[in-house]
Amino acid sequence: MPCQTETPTETKARAPTRPPYARRTPGRWGTRLLGIFGRSALLLLLIGGCRGQSPSDLPNDKVWISPHFAYHARVEDAAICGDLLATLERHFYHLQSLLGFEWPPGRTINYYKFVDVSDFVENSPCPKASGGCTDGNGVYTYDAFEQHELVHAYLWHLGSPLTVVKEGAAVALACNQSIAESPTLSLADSVQVQQPLDDPRVYDTGGRLVRYLLDQYGPESFIRFYAAVGSPVTFSDFDHVAREMFGVSTEAIWSAALATHASCPPTFACSREALSGDGTALAVTPVCGLQSDNRTFAITAGGDVAIAAPASTRIGSCDSIPFAQTLASTYLGGASQVGLLQLAAGRYYLDFPSAATGDLAVLEPNQPWAGNDCSALQPFVVEGDQYETIAIAVPQGTSSWAIKLRFVDHQRLTISRTSSSPPSLKLFACPGCDAVQGLCQALDLADTPVDVDWQGDYVLQLDSLSPQHAERIQIARR
What is the pLDDT of residue 321? Predict the structure, then answer.
């Protein structure tokens, strides 16, 4: 394996309705791809490797090979394994399918994975303030799977466009950072930025521009534009290329981009396997080296949904709507948990810790278990020790809201809230919608959780929330 000595130029900134959860055997992409690439990959163990042969001490102790990658790591980096090649190959094929770029025969991307930030700063050829960089042959980073730099590597052979276009493409296609609604760096000024670390605002401007171009004109037109906008050029040259490619001025393009939502659905996460909406469970297993993994699901009608997933799972939208900008953290606490929330119709993805084990499941009920009309609700059913935690999202500004729950077995529970404003939340737990006051239990959720012993049906009711407030209620087994 050759050592990299070039100076990298690309950088990044840093009835009763209940889920059956019947397990099914998943057809995992990772397993299939490893059958093609991973298990047949050539593993080279190079003790010492290229150390001392260049100014940079590159990771080269162990190297895994696949059709498009050579993955380099240090021997002490125990979390890294050859299974990562399946993820990288899947990512490559996804981006190539999406963008339609041609690939030079025989070209391989050398991925140099440093142990940590200190190793990266001391030994990588990248700017020390960056989180990673790319040159014509290598990706250098301390992240096991750095999508931003991989986008640069995939498009390298197309040319070196303006920084705002080049970095914008990586931001818009990796979607690993939010894109500002109103970037503070104008499009005209962004053309003058030669190195992104000179003015990091170019990431926001570029991401906003490229996201609009991809959505409005399609990947094929954007790739032609990418290859045509060489650097350095004047703004007049930039405008000329835009008029030739899209038939409108850059001023009109930028105005139209700013008039749209600054959404950035992560294309790779949204390409992952889909969960059914009937509560069928899909088992997940850890992926070496990765911080998180993804699966997708679709909501057909909009309204209530139950999502069983590991702790710290987040939800994002695969549609170009504002919700895509913020991943909504729904789950807190125990290992076996379910989130009850409301979502609009559309496609979504789950972002969950890749070290997690267990099942993922999504259930879209035939009848709601939460809402303003208590008499129309069916109970969400909890059996035995099915969940350690139930996380309930109360919609912002709702009034006369209720949720029905059924505990099949006796449960010793703790109820708390995860929001901090207003100072407390007053709820009533009643055996039914029309229960007389004497049969209801008043719950004042402030700083101290409330313990309850429940079995059977319960309705949690609240009168109203102010328009600016939403609530999250957590029910955990003691």
Answer: 59
User: Which one-letter amino acid corresponds to residue 48?
Assistant: G
Burial of 40 (0-12, 13-18, 19+ CB in 10 A): exposed
pLDDT band at 112 (very low <50, low <70, confident <90, very high): very high
Instruction: Please report, for the domain that includes residue 310, its CATH number.
Output: 2.60.120.380
In a domain, 263, yes or no: no
Q: What is the DSSP letter of 275?
A: P
Q: What is the DSSP track for 283-352?
A: EE---TT-SEEEEEEEESS-EEEEEE--TT-EEEESSSSGGGGS-EE---SSSSEEEEEEE-SEEEEEEE
Condensed to tens digits (0 to 9), the pLDDT of residues 191-224 reads 999 999 999 999 999 999 999 999 999 999 999 9
Q: What is the 3-state secondary structure (H, E, C) of 29-74?
A: HHHHHHHHHHCCCCEEECCCCCCCCCCCCCCCCEEEECCCEEEEEC
- In a shared domain, residues 102 and 204: yes
Instruction: Kindly give the interhelix angle for 84-99 and 147-155, rounded to the nearest 10 degrees.
Output: 50
Structure confidence by residue, pLDDT tens digits, 211-257: 999 999 999 999 999 999 987 788 999 999 999 999 999 999 999 99
